Amino acid sequence: MKSISIIAIILSLLLLKAGDVTSQSLTAAQIVDKANQKFRGATSRGEVTMSIVRPAWKRDITMKTWAKGDTYSLILITAPARDKGTSFLKRNKEVWNWQPTIERVIKLPPSMMSQSWMGSDFTNDDLVRENSIVDDFNASLLSEGKINERASYQIELIPKEEAAVVWGKIILWIDKQDFIEMKGEFYDEDGELINIMTSSEIMKMGGRKIATKVEMIPADKPGNKTIIEYKDIVFDEPISDDFFSVQNMKRIK
Length: 253
Fold this sequence. Notes:
With 253 residues, this protein is mainly β. It has helices at 6-10, 28-36, 126-136, 246-251, and strands at 43-54, 57-68, 72-79, 87-91, 94-99, 104-107, 137-147, 150-159, 169-175, 181-187, 193-205, 208-218, 225-235. The chain has one domain: Clam (outer membrane lipoprotein receptor (LolB), chain A).
């Protein structure tokens, strides 16, 4: 069952200040929470490219993203032409989709949350997953080691009994120094590996060090993957709650 919310992967999509707490004294849940907060801030505004790669073709989608805390987020598709103007709104764990070609707003039911988002290897659930991962999963520290030459925590996430989530288990590798999700493995309820997420091209953007490239790779589909690349991101600019409304998702440019 399955963030980075894609808003948590696209906006996802992902820095709580440590204060006086050292990384050695953090619990597994606190480590995951800090990683989730990496892209969040009080607000964020960004420009993102998503590339859907298949053995015989490739499709690029560009979008603008806005988010406020862990409650609100909005995605606007800006290209290609056939999808331009399509938008997605998240308020808490509810998601709406505006389709300008048919002038219709659709509220996504729970049954659609596991379906592909825009034909990619991310799901609709990825729009909300990152914001609820600490509440919906029990986290435990498996080990510590290096991944891509960066000292990292390996953390296992098991869904709580009452949680309505898509994945049966998630394993994350989180960088110790900058709390960047370096890798993620997503398993179904039967323990089968479904998707592998990797992060790269770490650099400073919007005043924070982040992974500007994220790849989601299906474990059983050779040659398939979805790549998200952050082109620009700005944190902590004021955004009104009213910006994240069903009415505004129809007219946002």
